[in-house]
Amino acid sequence: MKKIKLIYNPYSGDKTFKFDLDIYVTNLQEAGYEVHMFRSTKQGDIENHLKYIQKDFYDAFIISGGDGTINIVLNCLMKYNLNHIPISIIPSGTANDFARFLRLPKEPDDACKIIANNKTVSVDVGLCNEQYFINVCAGGLFANVSEKIDKNFKEALGKLGYYIAALQDIHTYRPINLKITNSKEVIEDKFDLFLVLNSSGTGSIKNLSPTASISDGLFDFVGFKNVGIANLPSVAIKYLKGEYLEHDKILFFTDKQIKIESLEEVYCDLDGEKGPMLPITIKNMPNAIKVFIE
């Protein structure tokens, strides 16, 4: 019988995953899996658990949670050479940007059916200095909202809580001076926000980069230059319409390695988790992990 490890965060999203837990286990057992569970309750416990797992003990991992939980597990799988084991994602968090890109279902029957069908896709992973990400590396305005938002506030308001918390940054925010180096050029300018995207969206916005691919070996870089708070909405709308290539306030390019520097103290955000402080070098790790899909 195949073995599968189910890792879940009982505090993710609306906290309802635990009510369907027996349905998941029943479906997985019927699909031929012996189910082992790990319930995450505190910071660091997922890594403390995964670092002792034998390399070929499990046939698959299931991750139930939001983008942050996925990021934590991803870093452990890469760090402890477990990334050859395919993962299934159940989007049960407040933000599920990567799962949304893959159109992964939350309903138990549908989620388990995907695993039973055993269809996977190879996915690129980003390495930012010594930390990994699967969806986005971001910095600047709004980028660190998920780290700063009060836990109770997020639980009460869900996604709306992120937007309200983001608005609190606007009045005190100042653009940051960045030096961005890719394989073709060096750009120095002031930026309100930068995004290094693997999938097409973040912050529950689906089409930040409509051409993005999770398996092309490249990242899509999007930088909003110093447009000012008053002009940011209009520039963002032009970007979402696909007019970014001709807009002088939006920097867009694709590359497999990007270096971002600043003389200011700026931290980046990786999939909703705190990343390293600039300078950062971001490298694409092609086909680094396999994910179950429909």
Topology record:
Layout: E1 2-8, H1 21-30, E2 33-39, H2 45-50, E3 60-65, H3 67-79, E4 87-91, H4 97-101, H5 108-117, E5 120-128, E6 131-133, E7 136-140, H6 145-148, H7 151-157, H8 159-170, E8 176-181, E9 186-197, E10 219-225, H9 232-240, E11 250-255, E12 257-261, E13 267-270, E14 273-277, E15 280-292
Parallel strand pairs: 1-2, 1-3, 3-4
Antiparallel strand pairs: 5-6, 5-15, 7-9, 7-13, 8-9, 8-12, 9-10, 10-11, 12-15, 13-14
Architecture overview:
The chain is of the alpha+beta class and 294 residues long. It has nine helices and 15 strands. The chain has helices at 21-30, 45-50, 67-79, 97-101, 108-117, 145-148, 151-157, 159-170, 232-240, and strands at residues 2-8, 33-39, 60-65, 87-91, 120-128, 131-133, 136-140, 176-181, 186-197, 219-225, 250-255, 257-261, 267-270, 273-277, 280-292. The strands form two sheets. Strands 5, 6, 7, 8, 9, 10, 11, 12, 13, 14 and 15 form an eleven-stranded antiparallel beta sheet that branches. Strands 2-1-3-4 form a four-stranded parallel beta sheet, with helices on both faces. The protein is elongated, with a radius of gyration of 19 Å. It starts with a strand and ends with a strand. Residues 145-150 and 152-167 have low confidence and may be disordered.
